[in-house]
Amino acid sequence: xxxxxxxxxxxxxxxxxxxxxxxxxxxxxxxxxxxxxxxxxxxxxxxxxxxxxxxxxxxxxxxxxxxxxxxxxxxxxxxxxxxxxxxxxxxxxxxxxxxxxxxxxxxxxxxxxxxxxxxxxxxxxxxxxxxxxxxxxxxxxxxxxxxxxxxxxxxxxxxxxxxxxxxxxxxxxxxxxxxxxxxxxxxxxxxxxxxxxxxxxxxxxxxxxxxxxxxxxxxxxxxxxxxxxxxx
Length: 232
Ligand code: CTP
Ligand code: CA
Fold this sequence. Notes:
The protein is α/β, with parallel strands linked by helices. The protein has helices spanning 39-50, 79-90, 133-139, 161-172, 212-229; strands at 14-19, 24-27, 30-32, 54-59, 71-75, 95-98, 105-107, 127-129, 146-153, 176-181, 192-199, 204-211. A hairpin with a 4-residue loop joins strand 11 and strand 12 (204-211). Bound molecules: cytidine-5'-triphosphate and calcium ion. Cytidine-5'-triphosphate binds next to helix 3 and strand 9. Cytidine-5'-triphosphate (CTP) is lined by residues 79, 98, 100, 102, 104, 130, 132-134, 149-151.
């Protein structure tokens, strides 16, 4: 739909969206990263702005994407930088969406100079855990603030995608978890997504196979009606 055909139901709200993949430096020229393109976060930010929200988009590494119209863009690199930026913007946000692919681990040490090869095999890279930004944002949640997480799940012999999603929603304590079914060429580096919107109140809404913009619209539809239901 054209932007002027969209509802202006997010007017008066400040939304913070994280996007892209963090990069954890090994030395000044090398990092541990992931394949996130940032496109889902971009779609969430673009649609929110089109529906009237004030939008801050905190972006780690992404594909070469144009900044959506009317969106404030903040660039970060590592998970720790993303963490600091998200806490800062969350302090004034009504809705916080963690669509970024945050590295779970970072190298224990970052060399100050380029690591040189020698005649011998290298030492293994020692890793340590990164902070769970989503869980921290839930702990710091202001009254009435809505916190949304994303999960990409494949399912395995132990549990299916939806079961992993339900467990993750509980563990993270967020208000909404957007669960993407991945594998078979879904989600990473492709245009389409499919999955479920899981609400902390137990509501489970399937999201049909469609574009990242359609998933973004479904997320904002759900958040918008939950805020209306509260009478805000
Ligand atoms: N997330 C985060 N900080 C981290 C790791 C993840 O804020 N250090 C957020 C992601 O942005 C996403 C949600 O948590 O919104 C779920 O991320 P995911 O990687 O699926 O969950 P994990 O708890 O890291 O579990 P696992 O990778 O083992 O499935
Ligand atoms: Ca993870």
